[in-house]
Amino acid sequence: MRKAVDRLYGHRVMRRRAAEVTSESALRGARASAALAGADWPLEEVRRRSDFGADAEARTIGAALRVAAEAGQLLSVWRHSPLQVLARLHLLAVGDADPAAGRPRRAGEDAEELFPLDLPAAETVESVEVDPAAPVPVLPPAPGADEVAARLDQLSRLLVARAEGQGVGTPALVVAAVVHGELLALRPFGSHNGVIARAAQRIVLIAEGLDPKSICPAEVGLAELGTDAYRRALAGYLAGTPEGMAAWIGHCGSALRLGVRESTAVCEAMQRGMV
């Protein structure tokens, strides 16, 4: 994975137009994350629009764009207070008019469905090695508020310790995948948990130095792999078995690799003067 990312960073376009590639990656990642959250709009429609308050789909797009725009700016806070960043991302997603903005679910409060829309795998993506006849697993309900609070605190402690130099032998992709999976498992907020989990993964990849300029939109890869594969991989994470964890990390790695491919294509288009 590191070699694929390094090849992208070594592209000629990155020498003089890195900021543009970062912006395009954020846009494409936000579009894909919104698609996974139920608003599958064409990229050019997302690029063209300026009003994202008209209906539920537009609000989902707007939420993903706001989260993507600020995620990379929260790195310094993330290193010492990941939970503060998660609260900020939720506030960005829902807007400060929502009384639940920025706070985890309370007892008795439900979380929105993670995958409200079925996205098929893209034709350009190699098939995932699973039995197509096997049923897509039904994900369990979100944990209760007390369990969410305890596991969020544990996750935060681990991330802060990591930032302070402990556990440095763990690969960046593994850390990012665990953060991504744990937030999907907990669904700590009433809404936008998928968008927030994917943004948190992006922040980890920046913080860990694997993708410091945030030019590898793994969200694009997740959308291209399709929601069935996403569900199956997440079910493996939730099972907690070595095989399940390996499948989840592998899925996140495949998505990141597809994100590298996406930005490589962007760089090639820029080099040809098409962007």
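(ticket continues) Second input and output from the same batch:
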Amino acid sequence: MGPPVVVEAMADEESKARTFSLLSVRQKQLEEQVLLIEKKKASLEEEVLVLAGQMDKKAREKYDERVREGEAKKEELIGEGRAGRDAVLDEGRKEGCEIGRKEGQAEGLNEIRLISSKLEEVLNSAVTERQKILEEAKGDIISLVKFITGKVIKKQVSEDEEVIVRVVSGAIAKILEEKKITVRVHPDDYNIAESRRGEFFSIVNSLDQIDFIMDKRIDRGGCIIETAFGNIDARISSQLDFIDMELRRSVKGDL
């Protein structure tokens, strides 16, 4: 009865050796799979980090949270892989590990897709905000142009007395068959306008009477002409407002 026991013992030892060999191979495969998952995840994280440089603070916080969750998931998978090493003979356990690995990969990819989607939203929002800022800047630039133009005109009016003469002449030229008009001018322009009365009569032959009135509400260099059929507004401020309106309309048409 001695030899059969030895044979059985040797067979049992060989079975254990084969089982141990299978365990070692399987363990190595599991470790290689885990390393592959880590490498792929690291590669995806590097790509996301390039885009993450353009994220706002809120998006960065969301990204960090996702990374932490991904790290926790990785540690969980590694722990499951190590635990499965001792139960590799259990086929159901092996299948569970395989399913867990695939689910882990799929979940990791889904996380990356969510982060990429968030990045796209952030970038689109940035583009929209940039366009809004540009539109607002155009309005500010037009206001600045109006302000500077007004400054330049006021300086020119203060240095050139002929400005009021040219403005009044241009406004009177728009009158048709009027016999009497009233011209409102700034007090500082009254004397020069009054002194050139004769020139204004020659512009419209039907004119019989021109009354000049000092009005502090009128800008220097401008005037308002009152007729029986309506008024002609030739104030500098009104002309600047018209230019401002036309510029804004033009810019709005380009948007």
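Agent notes: Confidence is low (pLDDT under 50) at residues 1-9. The chain has seven helices and four strands. Closing as not reproducible unless the customer responds.
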